[in-house]
């Protein structure tokens, strides 16, 4: 049986382009005992994949040139040589960018599509939802009445952070890159205020106006000048869960920004970077809580779904142009 895969053909300098990806036909190996033949249904594109396209050491190894890219996938079992999985069941796992694939059963977990649509297991009930939950609850430690600012607010992680902040009783202010996103944060996700960083001329002043009592928690998804402006409004004993730095992922030379340490020092601020894998042993607790909030209608979600396996490279590149609202996924 033949299928298609997408391999990384070259490493980008700056913003990735279509040339960095190559589509290939490949022959599936024979299905052996303990293995599953899967059909990909939804494939996730995530900002951290940009880091894996570089030849640089990080918390996950770089993609290997000439090999398929890989990430979160929701797939259907189309043939099973395992007693634990039946044909037709839906699974998720960290899998290659292939339309069909053969994987050992231990590489996937079943998903319950009665709780939420299958693609949500790549978003609110997957890695981004868990990132929002553990970063905010364990590092941000929100208390009722505090002010929470979220950057990258209209993305997969950001919309969940803001809503959990509201559940915890915070005033929530989001920063995002279009008027449409700003409107949606307030109308659909219950943010108290939202700021379009692309049209605001004085971001520091806009944050001050939106946060009359200052900023107690800054959930940082983007870094760069947006974070510089938020940190100038930071309160005594504030917490900063440092989640992402997407503003820097495509830079070829790291810019030298204003030094933030004086603000952290004089305001006794806690800034803590984290990788979601740090919380792996607590994932069941996180999924249980997120699922409950989804079932109770306290958490809602939004996705940008691109259609067709061919769309994967441009969907990934689109993340760095702000083309997604909520979670960007590709329906195969
Ligand atoms: P998103 O769904 O938020 O997609 C990316 C968004 O980032 C875009 O839509 C765009 O929105 C914004 N963006 C892109 N380029 C820039 C820029 N130069 N400056 C400011 N904003 C920009 O992605 P996720 O929610 O999945 O991830 C958000 C962040 O969290 C990323 O930095 C990611 O790497 C990080 N992350 C970290 C994890 C961890 O374990 N620490 C786990 C998961 C994610 P806009 O229109 O608003 O510009």
Task: Kindly describe this structure.
It is built from nine helices and 15 strands. With 332 residues, it is of the alpha/beta class. The protein is globular and about 60 Å long. It has helices spanning 48-52, 127-140, 156-167, 179-187, 203-210, 224-231, 261-266, 283-295, 312-318; strands spanning 2-8, 21-27, 35-44, 70-80, 90-96, 100-104, 108-110, 147-151, 171-176, 193-196, 215-219, 234-242, 270-273, 303-307, 327-331. The strands form three sheets. Strands 3, 4, 5, 6, 7, 14 and 15 form a seven-stranded mixed sheet that branches. A six-stranded parallel sheet has the order 10-9-8-11-12-13, sandwiched between helices. Helix 6 (224-231) links the parallel strand 11 and strand 12 (234-242). The two termini are 18 Å apart. Helix content is 25%, strand content 28%. The longest helix has 14 residues, at 127-140. The structure holds NADPH dihydro-nicotinamide-adenine-dinucleotide phosphate (NDP). NADPH dihydro-nicotinamide-adenine-dinucleotide phosphate binds at residues 46-48, 127-128, 131, 152, 154-158, 176-178, 181, 221-222, 224, 226, 243-247, 274-276, 319-320, 322, 324, 328. Residues 46-48, 127-128, 131, 152, 154-158, 176-178, 181, 221-222, 224, 226, 243-247, 274-276, 319-320, 322, 324, 328 line the site of NADPH dihydro-nicotinamide-adenine-dinucleotide phosphate (NDP).
């Amino acid at each position: 049986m033949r299928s298609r895969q997408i391999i990384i053909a070259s490493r980008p300098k700056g913003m990735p382009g279509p040339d960095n990806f190559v589509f290939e036909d490949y022959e599936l190996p024979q299905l052996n005992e303990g293995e599953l033949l899967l059909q990909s249904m939804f494939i996730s594109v995530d900002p951290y994949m940009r880091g894996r396209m570089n030849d640089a050491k990080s918390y996950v190894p770089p993609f290997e040139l000439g090999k398929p890219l890989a990430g979160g996938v929701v797939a259907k079992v189309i043939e099973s040589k395992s007693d634990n999985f039946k044909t037709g069941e839906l699974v998720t796992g960290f899998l290659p960018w292939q339309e069909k694939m053969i994987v050992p059963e231990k590489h996937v977990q079943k998903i319950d599509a009665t709780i939420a649509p299958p693609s949500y297991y790549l978003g609110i009930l997957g890695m981004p939802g868990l990132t929002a939950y553990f970063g905010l609850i364990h590092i941000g430690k929100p208390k009722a009445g505090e002010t929470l600012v979220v950057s990258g607010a209209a993305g997969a992680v950001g919309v969940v952070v803001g809503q959990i902040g509201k559940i915890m009783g915070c005033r929530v202010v989001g920063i995002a890159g279009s008027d449409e996103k700003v409107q949606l944060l307030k109308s659909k996700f219950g943010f108290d205020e939202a700021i379009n960083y692309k049209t605001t001329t004085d971001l520091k002043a806009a944050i001050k106006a939106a946060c009359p009592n200052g900023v107690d928690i800054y959930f940082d998804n983007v870094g760069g000048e947006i974070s510089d402006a938020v940190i100038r409004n930071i309160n005594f004993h504030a917490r900063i869960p440092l989640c992402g730095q997407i503003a820097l992922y495509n830079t070829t030379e790291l810019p030298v920004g204003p030094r933030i340490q004086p603000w952290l020092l004089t305001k006794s601020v806690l800034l803590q970077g984290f990788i979601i894998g740090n919380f792996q042993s607590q994932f069941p607790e996180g999924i249980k809580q997120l699922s409950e909030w989804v079932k109770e209608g306290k958490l809602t979600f939004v996705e940008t779904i691109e259609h067709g396996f061919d769309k994967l490279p441009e969907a990934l590149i689109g993340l760095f142009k702000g083309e997604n609202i909520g979670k960007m996924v590709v329906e195969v």
